[in-house]
Amino acid sequence: MDTPAPTVSFTFDGVGYQVDLTESERQAFADAVAPYIAVGRRAAGRATRTSSSGGGSGVDAKAVRAWAQEQGLDVPARGRVPSSLIEAYQSAN
After folding, report:
1. Contact (Cβ atoms closer than 8 angstroms) between residue 68 and residue 75
2. Between vectors from CA 28 to CA 26 and to CA 30, what angle results, nearest 5°?
3. Whose CA is closest to 19, among 6, 1, 35?
4. CA gap 31, 53 in Å, rounded
């Protein structure tokens, strides 16, 4: 039986992967990527995926909530501020 090797981590097309391989599988993986590593370069820092904030509006939610309350509008105390309130706030300011 082949002995387990430490987890292998790699990134491809911006997506990080981890695989648990045996020692012989790890060696086969290393042999397969060796030609690409030989002509490649190390990426600066740790490979990470960036996440999107979902296309935020760029306005201060606290300010929008305060303004909406002053206008007598119904606004949730927590969570996402409705886009209709953000648009009304931006039009008024």
Report:
1. yes
2. 70
3. 6
4. 39
> CA nearest 20: which of 10, 32, 5, 30?
5
Q: In this structure, is residue 84 part of a structural domain?
A: yes
Residue 82 forms part of a structural domain: yes
**Domain span including residue 13:** 8-39
List of long-range contacts for 47-56, beta carbons under 8 Å, 24+ apart? 47/11, 47/16, 48/16, 49/14, 49/15, 49/16
Domain count, the chain: 2
Q: Where does the pLDDT of residue 35 fall: very low under 50, low under 70, confident under 90, or very high at 90 and above?
A: very high
Each residue of 37-90: pLDDT tens digit? 999 988 876 655 555 555 566 788 888 889 989 999 888 888 888 888 888 888
Tell me, what amino acid is at 50?
A: T
Asked whether residue 72 is assigned to any structural domain, the reply reads yes
